[in-house]
UniProtKB/TrEMBL annotation:
Gene3D superfamilies: Lactate dehydrogenase/glycoside hydrolase, family 4, C-terminal, NAD(P)-binding Rossmann-like Domain. This is L-lactate dehydrogenase. NAD(+) binds at G13, M14, G15, S16, V17, G18, D38, N99, V122, T123, N124. One of its GO terms (cellular component) is cytoplasm. It comes from Mycolicibacterium vanbaalenii (Mycobacterium vanbaalenii). Pathway: Fermentation; pyruvate fermentation to lactate; (S)-lactate from pyruvate: step 1/1. The keyword Thylakoid does not apply. The active site is at H179 (proton acceptor). The gene is ldh2. Residues 7-146 form the Lactate/malate dehydrogenase N-terminal domain. It comes from the Bacteria.
Length: 317
């Protein structure tokens, strides 16, 4: 008889982001079972109850939770959101020291419980945290990666679609580099219904001129700051984008997503974790695709890598 596929997903950290990820996975039917882990036993029990009470209205999914890490045992995918959260006015790199220490101590413990799991970090600064986790873990290549700029790229596509007055599914484009202030919008490879951005017109008028492109890129970078200022955290969209990553892994979809991995030479970048279009399958993060870049995009990407390298060095990574 065929061995049943393991579709257990664990979410580590039941703050606003972890809860949103669990909820998104539940309503999308992303996982066969969900295990929630948080040091706050009362909080995790409350979230398990709240999610289970809606089980009539969603695809079947067994939901458990505990303040004991053994609840994550045997997971196919582990999503880590635990750590200090970004405060209004604070950038992601300011969180680095505390969350690097957390990732370094937590990752080996998670792998003890689930040696074959794909571990996805969402904790910020996600690139630095991902690098720290890979340095302490004895895991196969690609088994540990960060959510990277998957959400940033979704923001990018949404803003382009709004200006083009089209459904977002017709827009393709990536944000690459740091998940943060130095990230790069790859305008040279944006496709809008198959039309390059620099040729897209409405009523004969060019829509994406240089000023418009700059404004959209800036809006992507500043989106999180605006949301944090308004409601204290970004959580709903990162919940949905992380559920999409989970589906790519559990479904062995070979989906290209801009996740954060430790680079091995693409665009002459190495030894730093940042986001590039990457094939996601049941094995985790695989081949990195080298999209053709304009000269300013390449220089910007390499500058983004240098920014991250400086932070790594300051933390002794």
């Amino acid at each position: 008889m065929p061995v049943p596929q393991n579709t257990k997903v664990s979410v580590v950290g039941m703050g606003s982001v972890g809860t949103a990820i669990a909820y998104a996975c539940l309503i999308r039917g992303s996982a066969g079972s969900l295990a929630l882990y948080d040091l706050n036993a009362g909080k995790v029990r409350a979230e398990v109850l709240d999610l289970n009470h809606g089980s009539q209205f969603v695809p079947h999914c067994r939901i458990t939770g505990s303040d004991d890490i053994t609840v994550t045992a045997g997971s196919a995918v582990v999503i880590v959101t635990a750590g200090a959260k970004q405060k209004p006015g604070q950038n992601r790199l300011d969180l680095a020291a505390a969350n690097v220490a957390m990732a370094s101590s937590l990752t080996p413990r998670l792998l003890e419980q689930s040696p074959d799991a794909v571990i996805v970090f969402v904790t910020n600064p996600v690139d630095i945290v991902t690098l720290a986790a890979t340095q302490v873990a004895h895991a196969a290549p690609g088994k540990i990666f960060g959510s990277g700029t998957v959400l940033d790229s979704s923001r990018f596509r949404y803003l382009i679609a709004e200006r083009a007055d089209l459904a977002v599914g017709n827009v393709h484009g990536f944000i690459v580099g740091e998940h943060g202030d130095s990230e790069i919008s790859l305008w040279s490879s944006v496709s809008i219904g198959g039309v390059p951005a620099d040729q897209f017109r409405r009523d004969g008028v060019l829509v994406f001129d240089e000023d418009t492109r700059k404004a959209i890129s800036a809006e992507v970078i500043n989106a999180a700051y605006e949301i944090i200022a308004g409601k204290g955290a970004t959580n709903l969209a990162i919940g949905l984008s992380t559920a999409r990553i989970v589906e790519a892994v559990l479904g062995d979809q070979h989906r290209v997503l801009p996740v954060s991995t430790v680079q091995q030479g693409a665009y002459e970048i190495g030894g730093v974790a940042l986001s590039l279009p990457t094939v996601i399958s049941a094995q985790g993060a695989g081949q990195v695709l080298e999209v053709p870049l304009s000269v300013p995009e390449l220089l910007g990407l390499q500058a983004s890598a240098s920014t991250l390298c400086r932070v790594q060095e300051s933390l002794g990574l």
